[in-house]
Amino acid sequence: MGLSDYAELLQTQLELLRAGKRFALVTVLSARSPSALKAGSKAIVEEDGSTHGWLGGSCTTREIVDLCVRIMAGDGGQFVHSLETCQGGVVEVLIEPFGERRKLLVVGEHSELIASITEIARVVGFHVTHLSVTPSDKAEALDRLGGFLRSVRPENLYALVATMGSDDQLFVEKILSVRPLYIGVVAGKKRAEAIKKWLLARGIPVELVERVRSPAGIDIGARTLSEIALSIMAEAVKYSNTQISTGLVASQPATQSSDLFVDPVCGMLVEPLSPHFTIIEGKRTIFCSEQCKRVFESNPQRYSPEANA
User: Which residue intervals define the domain TRASH in the entry (predicted)?
Assistant: First the structure.
């Protein structure tokens, strides 16, 4: 990459940051031949999979783009990944997410528990919003909650209701209406069951009610308020990381395009006009590289639907 290329990428970064858009900066740290990627190459990947700059190697680049989209959905620091190219080389890339962080909404009157949750959440990378609720301002708090929910993207929202049994079902119902990634309620088992029964009676779909994690938190044998806060945030982080590892993200256009085909050997997405293809029994199979084509032709039965059933 020349200086003009770096300058253009930097300008793009600034424009995306000013616009409040989420993106990832990809840097090739090392590349072992055979590989079209070169150490020092950089590119920017936006949330929708669009790219700025050039890394080289369509097969590996598409895998990197998909990885960036997944990482941005989960939001978490820097990521160094080692990838094997379709030609048999190895590249190491650094992926740095920028822009909007995961948002944690905490609903409830200020308490030691909420203070501990806020502290832990910020340490692990959440942007925390505390919606204070007191018995005298419940109606106003519900209005403020509605305004907040309209201002955020639900696929980036994690919510915790800690009103300690004081009309918590009303806040849960309102939050569920936007389908957040995670919603937990600080409550005992009896109260948790009562909330879910109330939601079902209100006509809330079962699949939405089942999203409510209550009692909130994973079982770590917590005894103190700080330990309870830790268990709750551990559950939220678990949900977040599950989005990355399973690819459960809101938008992955690169993997949903009807114009792309899956290489049966390596699983990469391939352009329909790829020069690497074979025709067996009248069926055309497309590959990302000549190497994948050779592997397939050596044992086509291995990649048949019946063999993978």
Answer: 263-300
